[in-house]
Amino acid sequence: MAVADNIAEFLGKSSWIRKMFEEGTRRRKLYGEDNVFDFSIGNPNVPPPQSFYEELKKIAEDNPQGIHGYMSNAGLPETRQAIADHLTGLGNKVFSLEDIIMTTGAGGALNVVLKTILNPGEEVIIPSPYFVEYNFYLFNHQGIPKIVPVKDDMSLDIDAIADAVNEKTRAVIINSPNNPTGAVYCRDELSILARLLENKSSSYGRTIYIISDEPYRKIVYDNIQLPNITDIYNNSFIVTSFSKDLSLPGERIGYAALCPAMEEKPQITAGMVFCNRVLGYVNAPALMQRVVVSLLNETVDVGIYKQKRDLLCNGLKELGYEFNVPKGAFYLFPKTPIDDDLEFVKILQDENILTVPGSGFGKSGYMRIAYCVTGATIERSMHGFGRAIKKVRS
Predict the structure, then answer these.
(1) What would the pLDDT profile of 62-77 be if each residue is shown by its tens digit?
(2) Domain architecture of the chain: domains with CATH
(3) Which one, out of 11, 61, 89, 152, has a CA that is 20 to 30 A from the CA of 387?
(4) pLDDT tens-digit series, residues 333-343
(5) Are the C-beta atoms of 191 and 174 separated by less than 8 Å?
(6) How far is CA 249 from CA 105, 165, 298, in A?
């Protein structure tokens, strides 16, 4: 076999998101762009704020000496300090530049954190449904995913997490706002989780971390305020990117932040800087590090995503679909009207509607609809959603 056995196995389980995206590309060639309704991939379609273009142009025209040169493995000091100041303003902890590591997106940040803290065979608890790339990130660093269900309303099931914790547990990954559900975890449930992990860490004599994956943090609706995990749990990491809140996924710019009160922080920090280098990421692109310094309080027009959410939810509710209205991100995760989500997704394909089965996120009987598409796409897809649900009900 040309590739390693485990890679061959993973290729066979390749992302459902990518599979459906590729199917959409194939169908657009067959039926035309306007006749295919592709809700498969979370590629932001709201443009970056105008301030991004202005700052990018300004920095490119200034062309200071060394703008494209090597830098510290942790990233540009001025960028790290700006992010530290920004995070300090959001909560009750005072961050320093030493608490910030610039990374190639949130995926790079997750890999750096996991490489730093995991010993081979240690477990990381992941509430399901979840972004299944976590499995592959854990494989990269010889970690074991421990999947636990959430409640029916998509909130954390603390009892299930408690049952999953054992002497091999090293961390819990939370993702809020959540991909694929759009759920937002409240302060109360995170506080209960924190107390649980504090007690378990004390009982086992080893630290259990929380890794908070937050690329959708600024995309929330209905005046919801997200709690800061570093205010709630000292042994926590924030991993995030500017891919969603500034609509810059292709620029691969993100960071990891350590809670300033983390135990053994100097060693953890040194380990992350080392891992950022040896993993080959080194750090986020220099130009983008300079650009985001002045954009930390900027975001895309979230009201546009809210309009799309409401348009989709209202349309599907009238047709009889069941779901929890998402509180953030740009995904809807409705139940499929039959238990077999794979079969129902195929029925939607017959209507040229591309969604992703919930099985691709670890929860069968559901599907993910990414509504970062045009309003016209949502409106014109409703006839197909209607025919599909009528078909299975008849």
Answers:
(1) 877 778 888 999 999 9
(2) 5-49+301-393 (3.90.1150.10), 68-295 (3.40.640.10)
(3) 152
(4) 999 999 999 99
(5) no
(6) 8, 34, 16
